[in-house]
Amino acid sequence: MTSMIHPLKKAIKKQCGNCIPKGELWLGSGLFTGEGLPDTLENHIRMADRLGHDILCLPVSDAGDLKPETGYRYFDIPDIGSAVKICGRPVFAVIDGPFQDLVNRMGLMTVLTDWIQDQEEIAHTYKALSEKALGLIDKILEQPVSAIVIADDFASCSGPLVSPADIETLFSPFYKQAVQAINKTSAAVFLHSCGKLDSLLPIFKSWRIDGFCAIQSSVNNLEHMVHLFDGNILIMAGIEPELLETQPPPAGPLEQFRQTVAALGPSGNLIISTGSGLYKSEHMERLREIYLLAGQYCDGWF
Fold it and tell me: Is residue 120 within 8 Å of 127, Cβ to Cβ?
């Protein structure tokens, strides 16, 4: 077990006891609107309490604001320290990675077109955004954060958006530098990406990340991921959209959830979460029911 994951798992276990831990990478502004609450730091903590979450994840930017295209709020860096003092559970800071920032600025189709036609210019812009992200990470590390999650959507459900070789060449310098900086403070590093990631896993392993957050269990074999990383990772995942949106839940996704929890829960490699965040208040009761099912599928967490 890596030195970063072990203390984090101990801190999470202090919260969850012998139960499998729970959390969400994003609590959307619509969730709070549906509950008649303003989207504030205090209400994020209260919502985590209501849902029985064992970690708190806060999207962070240099200037906290609501970004309507994402549906969730970005917090200021000092909010991390405030959250740690108030909530008493591990706090994860979530940042946009350089590729995600590039896509947010230019649009995915423009990025993919320029990737083919003008990769030199794309690489130049990416390097500048990498420096910006590293500066943000340095500022976050001045706070008592337990982990930093870098959100970079590298893939769709069919596979990587660009070639794995390009991802390794262009993105590796940033990730290796980010991991080194974060691990120096004994914080852990997680990656979020949508889509099917199997062809990218050897690259991710070379970056020495500590796990994955909010990945799609429908297109990724989570047991294989844990095995490939020699058991030295944490994965936040397991709840696919159908389990929240369809009542009664479809048999296939429910059985997949059962298998995931039973396989990865006892070894301490799983934190239960959705793959995309929680945005609707009407999903809260269903989420609580899923948490109860998880307790039946797994009677202990490492």
Answer: no
Domain boundaries, the chain: 5-296
Reply yes or no on whether the pLDDT at 187 is more than 70: yes
- Taking only the tens place, the pLDDT of each residue in 211-230 is 999 999 999 999 999 999 99
Q: What is the pLDDT of residues 123-172, one digit of tens each?
A: 999 999 999 999 999 999 999 999 999 999 999 999 999 999 999 999 99
Neighbour order of strands in the sheet with 270-274: 56-59, 91-96, 147-151, 188-192, 211-213, 234-239, 270-274
Q: What is the CATH number of domain 5-296?
A: 3.20.20.210
| Residues comprising the chain, all counted | 302
Token readout for 31 is 């969730």
CB 53 within 8 Å of CB 23: yes
- Sequence letter at residue 14: K
Q: Is the pLDDT of residue 91 over 50?
A: yes
DSSP assignment, residue 2? -
CA angle 247, 249, 250 (to 5 degrees): 125
In whole angstroms, give the CA distance from residue 61 to residue 216: 25
Contact predicate 42/5, CB 8 Å: no
CA pair distance 189, 101, nearest whole angstrom: 18
